[in-house]
Every structure is written in C-alpha cells, then in structure tokens.
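re: ur question from yesterday

yeah so i grabbed the chain u mentioned. its 492 aa long if i counted rite. heres the sequnce exactly as i have it in my notes:
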Amino acid sequence: MKSYLVTMTISLVLGIGIFYLALQKEVDYKFQTSDMQALNTFSFLLSKKMMESERVSYNLVINDNVQSLLKEVSSERGKNLREILRKEITNRDDIKSIHIVDLYGNVYSEYQEPAYNKDNEAFSKQLNLEKVKNKKGAAYWEIGQNILQPSKLPTLYMTRLINSKEDMQPLGYIVIYLNQDNLKQECDNILANITLDIIIQDGLGQTLCMADESRISAVIKAKDEIRWEENKYYYIKRNHKKYYYVVEKMPIIEGYIVGLNHQSRTNYNISIILIFAVMSNIIFIIIASLIIKRKVIWPLKFIANKARIVGEEKKLDQDFYMEEGYLEVYDISDALNEMMGQINELIIDVAQREKLQKRLELSIINHQVKPHFLYNTLNAASILVAIEEKDTANELIKTLAKYYRACLSRGDECITIVEEIQIVEEYIKIVIIRKPNSVVMHYNIDERTLEFKIPKITIQSLVENSLKYGVKKAGVPVQINVSTSFDEKTTE
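ran it thru and got these structure tokens back, copy pasting raw so excuse formatting
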C-alpha cells in the first residue's frame, strides 16, 4: 500500500513537473515569438527611416548648388546652404536637424525647432571623421547627443562625406540627426500591446534606450547585463524575477537592437494552474488511497487471512466470497472458491479411492483365504467320514457353517471386535478338530473395546499366520494370545 502510494505520488509529481516545464516552454516560446515579431517590425521601420535619411543626404551630396557653394567662398554661402537644407527638412517629422560642415569647420544647420547656444567647435569634435572617411562616401551611423540641439537622451545620427563630383576631392560633411521624439512615438505605436523596451547599440558600443521615463534608469542599468548575440533569447534576473530579452543584429549601424520585456516572466496563470493541479492531485491521491484501501487492500487482506487459515489450520471449508471489491478481486475470490471446491472434491475422491482400495485388499485376502481354508476343511471332513468319525465330521461341518456365517456378517467390511473374536473362535474350533492339541488360545479382551470396529478377519488372519509360521516344538501346541486394551485416545 505504502509503496503503491509513494509510486503514485512520485509519478504525479513528475507528471506535474513535466507539465509545468512543457507549459512554461510553450509560454516562453509564445512570448519569444511575439517579442521577436515586435522587434523585427520596429527594426524594419527604424531601418526604413534611416535609409530615407540616407537618401536625403545623398540628394544633398550630389546637389550641384551644394557642391558649388562648398567650392567657392562667398558671403551668401551660409544663407544659400541653409535654404537648401530647409527645403529638405520641411514636412519631415523623422529628421530633427540637418548640418553641413565644410573643410574649415564652419557648420551650416537647419532645425525642426529653434536652437540656441550653438557650439560649432564642440559639434565638429564629436564627429568620428576617420570612420566617415573610411566609408568613402557611404553613410556612417552613430549614437550620440545633438550638441547643437541638446536633449535628455541621445539619438541616432548619420554622417556622410561630400566629395566633388569632378575630382572626388573632399568638400565637407553632411550630418543628419533623427528625431528621437518621433522614434519614441513610432516605437510606442508598434509596441502598444507589447511590454518591450528598445535598446540600440552601435558599432562603438554606445547605446540608445527607448522606454517610458519611469523605466529609463532601470533599462540603462539592465543594458550592462545584456549578452549582445544575435537571435538569442535570454533573461536578466532581478529580485528572483526573470526579465527576458531578444537580440537582433542591425547591420546599418554595425550593431544590435534589443527588445527587453519589462514585465517579469512570472506567469500567474501558470502558477494558479500549477497550484490547482497540485491540490487536485493531493485530493486525488487521498480519494484514490481510500478507494484502493477499501476496494483492494481490505479484500486482499481478507483473502490472505482466509488462505492462512486454510494453510495453518487445514480448514478447507473456507468461503472466499467478497461482498465488495473491484472486478479483479471478485475474479480472485471466485477462482479461490472454485479451487477450494476442486480440492474438497479431490479429497473426497481420494478418500473414496483409499476406502475402495482397502476393500479390494480385504476382498483379495478373503478370496485368498476362504477358498483355501474351505478346501482343507472339507477335505478333513471327508477323511473323518471315511474313517467313520461321523460325529466329528458333523461337528466340523457345523462349525465351518458358523465360521462362514460370521465371516459374511451381512456383507459389512468392518465388524465389531466381539464379532471378530467369534470368527477367530470358530476358526480355532475347526483347526482343533482337524489337528487336536495344535494350538492353545488365550483371550484377554477389554470389554470396553468389544464394540469398536475393525476390518473383517483382521485378527483371524493374524491367528492363521501365527499357526502357519509360528515356531513350535514337536508335540507342543502353539500358544496364541489375543488381547485388547483401552485408553481415552487409542485402542490397541
């Protein structure tokens, strides 16, 4: 019982554990798929905006007016360049500002919103011009602050080298800053139903975080724990809670974009289901143990006790019938009842066979003794008649008749001891008539044994064998003692 319940409990615990792991895997997979799809969508939109900015920068690079203004120094250069930039930035919410830097460090800018306290020197110093030159006219993206229009958070900006279309000599640089507020709005629209915070890392390891202001500090802190590997789904553990994130490579900035789920992966539905499953299994185990105890254990104990009585006390009249139990217990009890019935039948059959065998043995003895004895007695009577001992012959024949009448005894195989003694006496009379002085009989019979039954001619056969095989001296009669004794347990 205990081992069965322990096995059942272990099986249920393992089943619950496997179920929980499978369910958690399924939930994780769904969350991962959802997070990756949202991140892919935002990454695609961001890349599209960045490529659109690259197109704007390319149009400016090949603009003949821009090329000519950068080649010639005039008092109208700044005004004309800003006019060109203004046309490009008009009605473009995704671009925060556009800047052209000539080879002398002069900066010509146009903004979506008014900018003050411009520090052109600091602006030029922050540009990674070596990286830009290595791009050989291609766009180079970085993450950084817009020094000419400071804000709380950095943003993405692009720098491109302006080469002369005639001799490919450098004329200056064009810088475009994306509108971080617009990016944040687009991010919120895409991730409206998904709890993702976006972290972007460029090739130099600089990061840009897009999240609610209440989570910015937590996201900035978490970014140091992120494993920057493509197509990976990891988690950050905080206060025994797991915050999962998905990483995707972003070739346009030679870096990565990360979607960090700011909700911990503590699925309360799974916890409730798990608690419900555990409680259900505990109740099931209790009910199952009670049912098993009533329907299985008790019936089996009842059968075992009955079998023990049969084995130890040799009581073969036991009934294994069960009033209640499960189907297999009924089958076992029916099989045992059928077996006990067959055993009792076999015992009766064996007893009958033994009784029949004894009868056959007695019958064989009778058939062996009686004809031989009858022949000898009749022969002796014939001799007596021949020598004219008619009275003796007559007595011999009468005694023989009494002997056979006692032996027949109404056909019973077992007779009382007193009847058996009568047979012996008649037999001895016949023997003495045939052979006078050949035997002397002594009887010491306990009267309490006279009514006990024994197989017919048992004593007579012993007496006959004693006469036949007893050692005797010539002229000395055989002394035969027939005695019985009685006690409370046995008769001898």
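noticed a couple things. The mean pLDDT is 77. also Residues 99 and 165 are 20 Å apart (CA to CA).
anyway ttyl
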